[in-house]
Design goal:
With 124 residues, the protein is mostly beta strands. The protein has no helices and 11 strands. The strands form 2 sheets. Strands 2, 4, 5, 6, 9, 10 and 11 form a 7-stranded mixed sheet that branches. It has a 4-stranded antiparallel sheet with strand order 1-3-8-7, with no helix packed on it.
Length: 124
């Protein structure tokens, strides 16, 4: 069982930056990919970014590409999501997820573990 705890959300003005963190309770070969998703009110959960623990290969949604960087700190079992040039449409609850080798990075249902989420609100 893996527990994921997100932090770093908050209120920020448009154009600003935030760094979200996701601390995993343990590292395990049962989960290989870490992902960030977000869900705005009345909308479905959508993919933001994903990274592999080994090799650090990343993949980003088009909506955040060029403004967002996902990274890992393997020693701390933590992944980060650095978001710059934030827009109002980035407002959502951001969730961290962990999945195994069979993960399809952009599909939430293929991830095994989820955090509780952290709210990001971007004001104009």
């Amino acid at each position: 069982q893996v527990q994921l705890v997100e932090s770093g959300g908050g209120l920020v003005q448009a154009g600003g930056s935030l760094r979200l963190s996701c601390a995993a309770s343990t590292r395990s070969f049962n989960y290989y990919y870490m992902g960030w998703f977000r869900q705005a009110p009345g909308k479905e959960r959508e993919f933001v970014a994903t990274i592999s623990w080994t090799g650090g290969k990343t993949y980003y949604a088009d909506s955040v590409k060029g403004r967002t960087t996902m990274s890992t700190d393997n020693a701390k079992n933590t992944v980060y999501l650095q978001m710059n040039s934030l827009k109002r449409e980035d407002t959502a609850v951001y969730y961290c997820a962990a999945g195994g080798f069979k993960v399809i990075p952009t599909i939430p249902a293929t991830y095994d573990y989820w955090g509780q989420g952290t709210q990001v609100t971007v004001s104009s």
